[in-house]
Amino acid sequence: MADATSSLEKAEISAARADASLLIRGLHKAFADVKAVDGIDLAVHPGECFGLLGPNGAGKTTTIEICEGLTDPDSGKVEILGLNWKNNAKELRQRIGIQLQETQFPDKLTVEEALRLFRSFYRRSIDIEDSIRTAQLEEKRRSRIGGLSGGQKQRLAMATALVGDPELLFLDEPTTGLDPQARRHLWDLVDNLKQSGRTIILTTHYMEEAERLCDRVAIMDHGKVIALGTPKELIATVGGEEIVEFAAGSTTHQSPEALHAAVVEALKTIPGVESHRVDASVHQLSVDELHTTVPLIFAALEEQGLHMNDFRTHSATLEDVFVRLTGRNLRDE
Questions:
Q1: Do 284 and 247 contact (CB within 8 A), yes or no?
Q2: Among residues 96, 175, 231, 331, which one has the fewest Cβ atoms lying within 10 Å of its Cβ?
Q3: Residue 9: what pLDDT?
């Protein structure tokens, strides 16, 4: 029986490997007493934009650094395009592209000179003119890098990651620190890369970015994958399509504990409320239909002698998924 099970597991792994640009099995990495990566299994399909999300300290950066060949795992396997860093490092460097969170270029180089330098590292490469056009840096081709804006430097970093015509591209928080306009430019560029059929591994703190760009996402916390699926699938796990948030007040000056108990009592019989949680005195409800549920919430609170402060609503998002799973926001330390 054990042999049959082993054979079945091997067959499943072989099937996953055949259809995976990135395959991670049983990955572990610890630093002293901290388990940064604690038994991760993932498979990313060819042509997929895959998002890896999580707060600082969740283990996503360590996972990405192992995949990029920058950090050695304690145990487990990573295969990229059917290859591994131990036996195929030179080949992998020719077939992947990496954009780090921050790329330091020599300030005195021009955009064109930097691209020509990076292009010289690869056997196969993209034409410099195409690289400049892809990065939307035509007007800056002869400008020195030291004079570029943050968004222009990020687009140049993307272009240098692409100049080797990679089959798989790692983008580590590519829009962090950019203004909204520059971020949208990078989104358009990633959209174009998706259309070209490249496989993209994206880490980001911006949930709107992940929802817009990623075909699937994995949410990590404490070194483990705690949720995996398409953005639509994960958002559906919140329970309701809409989120209602409010702080509650009382004219009777109740204690925080009594106030909380009164709100729970008021809400527990309202139809259409799928879930209820409290974070920093803000009540968060997931509901199916705002137009029918919200009036009932107001009426129930009023009956208990309570009133709402800071009332707001929004459609359920990936950030709501994360907060529901971990109880903290993505940018928490």
A1: no
A2: 331
A3: 47
Q: How far apart are CA 95 and CA 327, in angstroms?
A: 39
pLDDT tens by residue, 172-216: 888 887 888 888 888 888 888 888 889 999 998 888 899 999 999
Contact 296, 268 (CB under 8 A): no
User: Which tokens in the block code for residue 44?
Assistant: 């990313």
* CA nearest neighbour of 49 among 163, 146, 191, 173: 191
DSSP label at 113?
A: H
Residue ranges in the chain whose pLDDT is less than 70: 1-18, 239-240, 251-253, 327-333
Cα–Cα distance between 113 and 125 in angstroms, integer? 15
Confidence (pTM): 0.79
Structure tokens, 306: 């309570």
Q: What is the pLDDT of residue 5?
A: 43
Fold type of domain 11-232: Rossmann fold (3.40.50)
Domain boundaries, the chain: 11-232, 239-315
List the one residue out of 83, 62, 54, 92 whose CA is nearest residue 169. 92
What's residue 108's pLDDT?
Answer: 94
β-bridge mates for residue 228, sequence order: 218
Beta strands 224-229; 75-80: pairing state: unpaired
Topology of the domain covering 239-315? Alpha-Beta Plaits (3.30.70)
Phi, psi of 123 (to 5 degrees): -70, -40
Exposure letters 230-268 (e unless 16+ CB within 10 A, then b): ebeebbeebbbebbbbbbbebeeebeeeebeebbeebbe
pLDDT at res. 179: 82
